Structure formats: C-alpha cells, structure tokens
Amino acid sequence: MSRDIVWITLESVRQDHTTLGGYHRDTTPFLKSLSERTDGAAFENCFSHDVWTRASSASILTGLASSSHRTWTQENRLSSDVPTIPEALQRAGYRTACISPNPQLSDVTGLARGFDDFHYLGRDTLLEEAGVPTVLRYLTKLNTHSAGYTTDTAKHSVGYISDAIARRHIREAARDDESLFLYTHLGDSHHPYYPPKPYQDLYADGFEMSVDEALKLAMEMSSDLHGYIARGASFTEDEWNALHAMYDALIRYVDDTVRSIVEYAEERLDDPLVVVTSDHGELFGEKGMLAHMVVADDAVSHVPLVVSGVDGLSGTRSDVVQHADAMKTVLSEAGVDADVPVGMDLRDGDREFAVTQRSGARCASKLEMIRERDDSFDASRYHAGDLTSLRTHDYRYQRSESGEELFAIPDEVTDVSDEHPDARERLAEECESWLNTYGLPKSEREERAEFDDSMTSHLEDLGYL
C-alpha cells in the first residue's frame, strides 16, 4: 500500500509571522516541533505561486503556473480538460478527500475535481458536510473554538469542524486499509482576524487599546478593506499593533488545529507523509496594500513550509522552493506517477529562482474597487497587466506590461536595475525563458465560476467582493 499523504494549507500566513521565521511571538510551536523531528524539514525560503487562494490552490493541485492553469481571475474556474494531481492519486488507488471553508477552493472554481469526498464548509452546507453530531458538539464549544454565541458568521472559526472531518477520513482510511490523500485548507487565519475567545487576549500585552476595541478594529478594517487602502492604510502605531496581535493569535489557533490533525493521523496511519504550508502571505501596509492583492512582495508570497516523513529530507533548509516542489517530492516518495510541471524534488537541491504571478484582470478589478472608495487614489504606481515576479536569494525581478524592475532583497522599494544591469539582464532572460516554457496556457478553453447567493455572501465576508 502507498504512503498516506496529509497536506494542510493554512490561509494567509506569512513566513515572518511564524516561529519558523524567527518571529518575536511563538505563533507556530507545533510547526517548529514538526520540523525538528529527525524526518522533518523546514524551508526558510518557500514562495507561493500566486498571491490569492484560488490561483495558489490551483497551482498546488495541478502543478502548473498560474498563467498556465488560468484559474487566476475572479471569473475563471479551472478548465475541465486540465488534469489535476488528485485525479492522478485516484488512478493510483488513493482515497482522496478535501476540506475547504473558502469558496475559492470549491467545486465552483473547478478545484474539487479528483476528490472522492469534497467538503465545502459554507453556512448552507455546514450541517450536511460535518454531520449533525459534529455540529452539535461544535455548538457546545463556541466559547472555546470560536467567537461565542453570535450570529455574525464573519466572526466564527471552523477549525474544530475541519479537524473533525479530517479525523473521520483518517479513521475510515485506516479501517478500510486504503491509502489516503487528505488535503485540508484551514481558513481561520484569513481576515477579519477575529480569534476564538480563548485566543483573543493571547498577545494583548502588545497593544494599548482594549481587546474589544482591537476586535472591533479588525472587523471594521475587513468590512471596508478597499476603503482603508484608498485612504492610505493610515493606521496608528497602536492600531497596527492590535491588528498584528489579532492576526498572530489566529496563526496560533491554526497551529493548534494542525497539531490536532497531524497527531491524530500519526496515531492511526502508517508513517504518513505530512506537508504544512500556507497558500500565500498577508499585507500589512507594504506598498500601501492590505490582505493579499495587487503586489507580489515577500509579505504576500513568502510562506512557511514544513515537510515530514520524506527519506533524506531533514533540518532547516535555506533553499529557494515552491509548493509544487513539495508536491513533486511527496508524490515521488509515495511512488505516485503524476506530472508536476513547475515542480522539482526538494532533495535535488536549490532552484535558481521561485516564480510568483498575479493576473492583470484581478489586479485591475481590485484597483477599480479601491478607486471607487476614493478617486484620488493613485493606481499608476502599481504594475498593470499580468505580473511575473522572479525571486532569488538576493533579488526580486518582476515584469508586466508596465515595465520591469529589480529589487535587492530585503529592500523591495528601490529599483536597482541601473546599479545591477547584469543581474537585471540575466533575470530578464530567465523570465522570458520560463514564461515560454511554463507560462503558456495549458488549455484553450475558458470556463466561468458561477457562485450562488450563499457563496457570494461568504466571499463578501472574506473581503473578496
């Protein structure tokens, strides 16, 4: 029987807010401990393929670049003729299951294909997907695993339910002696940064306002995200501190949820392969932005990655890597034949550069939403059209129809193209070659994602619309 694979993707967690990234708060103690096992590895320089959930998830589940799978606008879903990795795992005899509380990762966006069981956790589907007993237990635990007894669904966390469904699949796979591919997307660290009650004062010593005021601020920011950006994201120092503290508390909560799922899997499955990462990071004022949109800087593309159970892979690694590399590695370790076009085995050494993309159509839509809040907002400072960004250890090179620029890391503000012409020229050539090799559309078909009213409301809660 093939090795079980447990893949957990966190929502909006940036590397520099984790214990793994040397953060001043111990937000991810379990991830740190997982990486320190003899068969565990932490990657300090992992970069997402895109800057938002739908596109990043599509890259993880297809092994394709965003400009290739084209699932990178608010309108597009994954074309039905683009093969997925879960389909390959099905052919290899795996039981495949996915849990997602985000409509961007759902059947509507074409990303449920290849999963025997797909659980989208929305307000209208929660009972059916989780089951009555699980929901009843959840309701008794709203004061420990969520925001308490409030009807404001934007405040609630569903990590408890994701954990319960994951455990169910683990038990059933172990019982039936089936190889399991379990993909769990934990969405509670997405804004509005409203932690479960026991976590709300976890880092309250980091700001002066009251916890209630901090929670109110987080909700207000999320509900008027584009307005705050239009007005310059001009929070006071204490407001920034409060927002960071609420965000960090949610990271700690999802880390605890990861611990619960992984430890349960290791108790019942035979030596599972484990991957924990984040779909993208989160912006807190960098380039004047919030959340995850428009830019591809480290804040929104540099993410944690921990892999456990792969022979020959251990310790803290400084290699530049991407999600597709982790997928290619665990599939190889499990003996599964699947194409991962932009991936390379993590054991084969350091890739020269990582590539993060974002679509021009989604960027234009976001900038228009921002301008509607304040028509004096200057959108000309941002790249127009599709953006492709190459990240090496030393540089970030990016190009779009607006032009190109080169940054010397960690400075992502000052264009150093004139000071480093050789580096700019070399990376420009690499970018052109990469786009011609990996960036062309995989399919000529274009399919649209049509969300129902419930999903649309859910997307509004998450600030997508």
From TrEMBL:
Matching InterPro entries: Alkaline_phosphatase_core_sf, GAG_Ulvan_Degrading_Sulfatases, Sulfatase_N
SUPFAM superfamilies: Alkaline phosphatase-like
CDD domains in the record: sulfatase_like
Pfam families linked: Sulfatase (PF00884)
Residue stretches making up the Sulfatase N-terminal domain: 4-336
Domain of life, per lineage: Archaea
Protein name: Arylsulfatase A
